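Subject — a protein and its fold
Encoding — discrete vocabulary of local shapes:
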Amino acid sequence: MVSVRRIRIYKFIKASNAFLQILTTILLKLCFERRTNKHLFHCKCLMIIMSIFRSYDVRGIYGKDIDENIMKRIGAAFSSMSTETIVVANDMRISSSSLKKAFIDGCNKKIIDCGCVPLGVGMLHAMGKHDYAYITASHMPKEWNGVKFFHKNGIGFGEKENKKIGQLFSTIRVKGRPEVVQENVTKLIDNYRSYVRGKIKISKKIRVVLDCGNGMAGVVAKQLFSDSGFDVEAIYEKLDGTFPNRDPEPSEDELKELRKRSKNADMGIAYDGDGDRMLLVDNLGRKLTPEQSSYLVLLGAVSEKGPIVANVECTRLIDDIAKKIGKKIIRVPVGHTFLMQAVSDNKACFGMEVSGHYTLPYMAPIDDSLMVSIYAAAVLSKQNKKLSEIIDMIKTYPFERVNLECSDEKKFIIINNLTQKFRRKYKNVTTMDGVRVDFPEGWVLIRASNTTPLIRLSVEAEDEKTLKTLKKKFSSTLKEEIMKSKK
């Protein structure tokens, strides 16, 4: 029999991810020995905490990991540790509307419901006044959903705060008496457009193609660019939570249509599901890397004071760019919450992640790719060269990322094992986020994804031959470790 006391002891013990996984397994086995409703509820709480309360959001497969009953308790937990008024909005996924209603029903505070709007629209409305909850699974496949939490300063909830919500989830009493104020969506969109328009000045009219991917960017992206004087074309504008035309993660899709159309334009831009990630395409139809995209942005942001913040996955190119424009680089762990916190703490002029998250305090101290993308287009309008020519001016290094499937229960244990092994074998090992090994001719980073059941291997080298050697060696080591964990 699993008592309430044992559950509390379980929550208290967090010495290591490996120990936590083992302890969870034992508790679940004990729990299922007695199948009363009360015990089953506590078992489910344990599984939920382990699977959906992640480092910087709450996320799972709808109907399997997360549903309306679960979301109602999440709402209750969040409202117990948030501002007196909470701003809530949702994306266009099939389950988002009902999950938002359940979330609100669980709250016991004043709720400002912004409806179905891009993440940045609701965040701008909440900025400086209220905490913000956005129902979304961002770039994940259509089956997924969840919620992101943000402080009123625009910085997302960190790992400890999300875990705290997970702890409260299993014990909180749902009072559910929210005072709901329904905002006018059209007014919110107009306010957002007006704010962005006041920040953007272009030197000449350039042609921009937008790929909204049937995601939330379709609500406002085309109008934003038109407002500022761009010649704009948009594809896949219609909101559709099934993502019928391409993957909601732009970097995982070939973007064939956008790349084709961009050849007859000055640039192309693709957005993810909720509009907080973006990918640029040049006039030759080439997908730019996040570092190359950052170079374009920094041609304008160089005049702003402060360093550049980049996560540990970013390539040496961002260091070269920073040196070229006289800026300092500050490295942080992967995750938009770490990025935003570091930008704020260091009064940075710009922040970037390999995943396509960017933040530009000049526009707003929030993680909003729509704002950053239109700023990038405005910078391009002031250049005398084509985007392809600008990008070809900077050196790139051979780089590759490999994703290997690994269960959430095993991935952190594997990283811990590899860390110990590499420390014994190599001199330059860092563990800011995962385990990274640096060599004179390149580097390797192995880290567990915080949002998906994957372990990512990132490799960069001075030349293709070295890249292949490092990739082969470390991918083999990683695969062996994953296989061992399955025995």
Observations:
- Residues 464-485 form the longest helix (22 residues).
